């Protein structure tokens, strides 16, 4: 059986990829940025985009089962994009003779669906619209609990930060959460299911309210929390509130909040009927597992780590360096300090390690970012030591990584332009460069106003990296 996995760098896709690889399935990954796939992985890669039919046809050629784990939620125009993307995928899959599509969508009924859920339902309807030509297994899940999942991160951040919560009335809405490992089990088993028809499978564990989930999470974290639902909090206010206290940016917070007012409950018994071997674990066990994974730095994937469409560096700078940049460049000789120690030091940037000095200024920048709807510093890092291309570090994203040579970060904070921060080792020199591609006059103004602060922060940053690397080399 030949399997194509789309969304292979996404939260669910990354985990499913590992399960399929462990099972030694003949696997092909469909990715937009091949650099974001671990080069040590022995797997076939098809580069492409669902808006490019040629790339879809190439990727789907010879495939028996294709997983569709794609959405464009980060884009303002996601409804239209998702519809087009699903249609292109279906057309190419039929053309290439694919036998089955497996899709993971959201739980809930159309009549009460938020704009986001409606878009997920539309995607499922499109993918399953030609049952006589291709069969579709459409798995529907509500709140997914696992280390790094957006729902769990929101619940965790709120419960950790706020001992007393005045919340909107949606905390009383009923849902059926499910542990991420169980979601992966259903998806994996779907490729082997012996049926020849379309199937919708609703998955979840026990029924509970969001309030019960937050209190359950607090209990697992050993915290006591008090929650008071108020009917007067609006969607706007709740979205700002979620944006401010949790790692999700405003647009994501708003889509999620809109969805929280309607119940997300299982509508059919197909999970038990067709997958009797899978027994979903309870909410409490899923939370405990997620917390344990976080504590042991075993977070496998995070909601914020889908790579993004373009390699921004390739797009904006590489082919036209002269047009790009205002820059701040600092360099130091690394002398006798081994390269790998210097590399290891600068790649530990962000998260709990901080930004090598002036962390309070970074904190202020993070708060400002949150105030205008950005991600802020709350996303932290997945792992204190390891990095991979495409993942987020606070309000940056790893755009390039070459062992013992280079780290390139792309700024995902709200800035009037495009910004990168690069660390590079060339021979015995560490070179640190902040690049800025300004948008209009305001972009330039922004850069020049910040020149004195940048001078302090960046000069100190490279010195601190060298000092830390030096100390580490003495211990070794
Ligand atoms: N996560 C949850 O809590 C949850 C809950 C219920 C249901 N689901 C469903 O599960 C599915 C996967 O969700 P997820 O959380 O894993 O999403 P995710 O982390 O945001 O990943 C989305 C993936 O889609 C890819 N993608 C987006 N547009 C594309 C395009 N035009 N062509 C090719 N690839 C494209 C992205 O690729 P890049 O890596 O290149 O950016 C990324 O890998 C979705 O259908 C979602 O509705 C998720």
TrEMBL record:
The keyword Nucleotide-binding does not apply. InterPro entries: ComplexI_NDUFA9_subunit, DUF2867, NAD(P)-bd_dom, NAD(P)-bd_dom_sf. The chain crosses the membrane at residues 445-462. GO terms for molecular function: protein-containing complex binding. Pfam families: DUF2867, NAD_binding_10. Keywords: Membrane, Transmembrane, Transmembrane helix. The keyword Disulfide bond does not apply. Residues 7-116 form the NAD(P)-binding domain. This is Nucleoside-diphosphate-sugar epimerase. It comes from uncultured Sulfurovum sp.
């Amino acid at each position: 059986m030949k399997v194509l996995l789309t969304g292979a760098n996404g939260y669910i896709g990354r985990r499913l990829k590992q399960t399929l690889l462990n099972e030694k399935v003949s696997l092909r990954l469909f990715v937009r940025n091949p650099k974001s796939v671990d080069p040590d992985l022995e797997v076939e890669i098809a580069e492409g985009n669902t808006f490019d039919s040629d790339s879809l046809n190439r990727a789907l050629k010879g495939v028996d089962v294709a997983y569709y784990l794609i959405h464009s939620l980060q884009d303002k125009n996601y409804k239209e994009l998702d519809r087009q993307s699903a249609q292109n995928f279906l057309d190419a899959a039929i053309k290439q003779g694919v036998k089955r599509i497996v899709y993971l969508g959201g739980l809930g009924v159309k009549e009460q669906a938020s704009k986001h859920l409606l878009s997920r339902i539309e995607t499922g309807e499109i993918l399953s619209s030609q049952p006589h030509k291709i069969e579709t297994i459409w798995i529907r899940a509500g709140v997914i609990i696992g280390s790094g999942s957006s729902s769990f991160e929101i619940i965790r951040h709120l419960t950790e930060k706020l001992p007393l919560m005045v919340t909107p009335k949606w905390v009383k809405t009923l849902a059926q959460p499910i542990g991420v490992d169980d979601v992966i089990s259903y998806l994996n088993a779907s490729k082997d299911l012996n049926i020849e028809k379309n199937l919708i499978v609703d998955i979840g564990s026990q029924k509970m309210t969001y309030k019960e989930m937050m209190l359950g999470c607090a209990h697992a974290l050993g915290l006591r929390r008090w929650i008071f639902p108020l009917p007067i909090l609006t969607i706007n206010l709740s979205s700002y509130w979620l944006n401010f206290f949790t790692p999700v940016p405003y647009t994501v917070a708003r889509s999620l909040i809109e969805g929280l007012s309607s119940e997300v409950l299982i509508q059919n018994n197909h999970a038990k009927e067709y997958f009797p071997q899978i027994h979903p674990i309870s909410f409490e066990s899923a939370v405990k597992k997620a917390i344990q994974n976080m504590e042991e730095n075993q977070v496998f994937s995070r909601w914020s780590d889908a790579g993004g469409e373009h390699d921004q560096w390739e797009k904006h700078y590489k082919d036209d360096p002269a047009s790009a940049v205002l820059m701040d460049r600092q360099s130091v000789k690394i002398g006798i300090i081994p390269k790998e120690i210097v590399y290891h030091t600068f790649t530990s940037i962000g998260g709990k390690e901080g930004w090598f000095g002036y962390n309070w200024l970074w904190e202020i920048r993070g708060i400002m970012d949150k105030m205008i709807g950005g991600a802020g510093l709350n996303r932290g890092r997945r792992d204190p030591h390891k990095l991979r291309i495409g993942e987020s570090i606070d309000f940056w994203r790893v755009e390039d990584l070459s062992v013992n040579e280079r780290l390139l970060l792309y700024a995902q904070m709200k800035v009037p332009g495009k910004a990168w921060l690069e660390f590079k080792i060339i021979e015995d020199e560490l070179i640190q460069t902040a690049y800025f591609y300004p948008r209009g006059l305001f972009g330039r103004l922004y850069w020049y106003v910040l020149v004195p602060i940048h001078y302090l922060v960046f000069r100190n940053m490279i010195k601190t990296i060298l000092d830390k690397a030096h100390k580490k080399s003495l211990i070794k």
